[in-house]
Amino acid sequence: MAVDKPVFKRVLLKISGEALSGDKHFGLDFDVIKSVCHVIKKCVEMGVEIGIVVGGGNFWRGTKDGGGKIERTRADHMGMMATVMNCLALADVLEQMDVSVRVQTALEIKAVAEPYIRLKADKHLKNGRVVIFGCGTGCPYFSTDTAAVLRAAEIEADVILLAKNIDGVYSADPKLDPNAVKYDTISYDEVLAQKLTVMDSTATSLSMDNHIPVILFALKDPENILRVITGEKIGTIVG
């Protein structure tokens, strides 16, 4: 079956750590990771330049797991380390599929990854390499969603793809409210005003200020990444 042409040249894909754990809800599910990487490979072969920011919640969530037990900054740094494990797992599976990839981290970890340098990341992307960004922003108190928006702005991505465990933005939590309505499109102002949990408010404001559209969709079917990149209307567009 023929695949439509991509509507985006350069994208920033944000993958939650929890999504990589599959039904186990902790650690890594390599069947899930392989299916995600297989779709990423298809997108690269279509000429799409892909940067990836991955969360670390499948191993450690700073505010949730460390809250009240250890100092916040240290808890957040532990979360940054968790993202690196996910980055290396994604990189290895992609390399097994003959996809050229580089891992760059906001905290310097010379033995396993390049330090994040914007111009170097840009060069990698232009050369067809997937660039996986680890350690979030490198600063405590900022989420990996904020890191995704920051990296998207820095690499001048056309769009931010939020691959999560939910298939769009709803007026309320659909697990708790059977009357929750799913939005096809919604503005940043509405997201902030209604306090919807698309991203945290810092990430949403940063995305709004830099005029970067966000598409939120479910990663349960990894082919959704390809569908969004080729212009199919799924999930919710925030912009």
Automatic annotation (TrEMBL):
Regulation: Inhibited by UTP.
Pathway: Pyrimidine metabolism; CTP biosynthesis via de novo pathway; UDP from UMP (UMPK route): step 1/1
Domain of life: Bacteria
Example GO biological process: 'de novo' CTP biosynthetic process
Enzyme class, spelled out: transferase
MF terms (GO), sorted A to Z: ATP binding; UMP kinase activity
Protein location: Cytoplasm
GO cellular component: cytoplasm
Keywords: ATP-binding, Cytoplasm, Kinase, Nucleotide-binding, Pyrimidine biosynthesis, Transferase
Annotated ranges, domain Aspartate/glutamate/uridylate kinase: 9-216
Quaternary structure, from the entry: Homohexamer.
Protein purpose: Catalyzes the reversible phosphorylation of UMP to UDP.
Official protein name in the record: Uridylate kinase
Organism: Sporobacter termitidis DSM 10068
Record lineage: Bacteria, Bacillati, Bacillota, Clostridia, Eubacteriales
